[in-house]
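User: RNA helicase, Forsythia ovata:
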Amino acid sequence: MGFEPQIRRIVQQMDMPPPGARQTMLFSATFPKEIQSLAADFLSNYVFLAVGRVGSSTDLIVQRVEYVHESDKRSHLMDLLHAQRANGMDGKQALTLVFVETKKGADSLEHWLFINGFPATSIHGDRTQQEREHALRSFKCGKTPILVATDVAARGLDIPHVTQVVNFDLPNDIDDYVHRIGRTGRAGKTGLATAFFNENNAPLARPLTDLMQEANQEVPAWLSQFAARSCYGKNRHGGGRYGGRDFRRDASFSKGSMDYYGGSNINYSHGASSAYGEARGPVVTSAWD
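Assistant: Predicted structure for RNA helicase:
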């Protein structure tokens, strides 16, 4: 991984506690296997504590996947927005977050929505911090109830009234999908996550199907067919297990019945189920932050 040398230098330069002292280090909700492996170089017999279910979608979010050709995405999005406006209170547009793949695509879709009568704004990596904050304020207050964004908005945003997330362009990785749809269904409210899927997204079919089944969502028959013939596993699209699972639990890192370090004193909570249906996994992290 290209960033490992930089991380190692940073950690080595940190002020370390005196011998025998105990230091607490807290990591974010996403702690993928590669980063855990890197952290293992500096931590020993650490406690992996997490809350929630690994890579799982809350049942407050209804997930829909629709087959849409690239050339039909804009008209399909317009249909969704018209339906949402018709079902909204006083004909108002509910807050909708639309994810696209590129910065250029975000600007283009924002402009297209605006000229077609749907007030929209956008945020992406080329926007200044001031521009992003202005866009978010405009979105939150409903002045521009449609926010078009790249993955810069997939993590860290806590906007409690987002009614729908639309994956106009699906991401390459299932972890990113989980983070995206987690922008709705927050603070006990229900939400809808709609994804536009076509042949370009075939590598994501299997992990997406697994995720939806685990969350008791209805999986379209055509998506199951895509999943059946897709290659799922160690590629950048599949994603593997979500980054809230202690990598020492994986068979490839264990030695017999012992943990990665040859010990058995890892703190797990028994009886919690993982995103892949295991009955004995640890309590694992929430995907929503």
